[in-house]
Amino acid sequence: MKFEETFIKGLYVITPNVFGDNRGWFSESYNKNDFDKQGIDIDFVQDNHSFSLQKGVLRGLHLQKDPFAQAKLVRCTKGKVWDVAVDLRKSSPTYLKWFGIELSSENHKMFLVPRGFAHGFVTLEDGTEFQYKVDNFYDKPSDRSIKYDDPDINVSWPTIDLILSDKDKNAPLFKESDVDFK
Predict the structure, then answer these.
(1) What domains can you pick out in the chain, each with its CATH number?
(2) 62 part of the active site
């Protein structure tokens, strides 16, 4: 696996080794030894899988408040997404900065999003499947959303017609939220 840290500390783009032949391909999507060699010690406890019927489905920006914050290892296993993480750690030099990357079933790239971030993605193809590991269990009372088009964060989303849940349409701006990562 190749680990590339982004300009935001702790946020990695990971490219697994893909071995192909006339039958198809094989890849390890996670190997604890590879993560340990990078100094990344995360104990994943839950796997999630989402399916989006149409291009333009936006899911995010989502997070859980402490003490139920989650680190995520995300990947797109069918189709293509624009994936975004926003640094919400007040002590970070990149506080309120975001990083985005295209993840697809073709490029096999993964994105490691540490605790203290909001995360979201928009599908770029119909029939997209998205999978991710988390290091903390889902806790409904700690679940939060931040408005995907918050002007203080200013994420550059693809210019396509967006399909949002009511939860994401009605999410508060960050400055109106009770999210406080130290």
Answers:
(1) 2-176 (2.60.120.10)
(2) yes
Residue range 122-143, pLDDT digits in tens: 999 999 999 999 999 999 999 9
Give the Cα-Cα-Cα angle 7, 12, 13 (nearest 5 degrees).
105
The secondary structure of residue 150, as a DSSP letter, is -
pLDDT digits (tens, 9 = 90+) for 88-105: 999 999 999 999 999 999
Reduced to 3 states, what is the DSSP secondary structure of residue 167? helix
User: pTM of this prediction?
Assistant: 0.94
* List 108, 119, 132, 148, catalytic entry: 132
- Cβ-contact 73, 110 below 8 angstroms: yes
Report the helix count and the strand count for the chain, using DSSP H and E: 2, 13
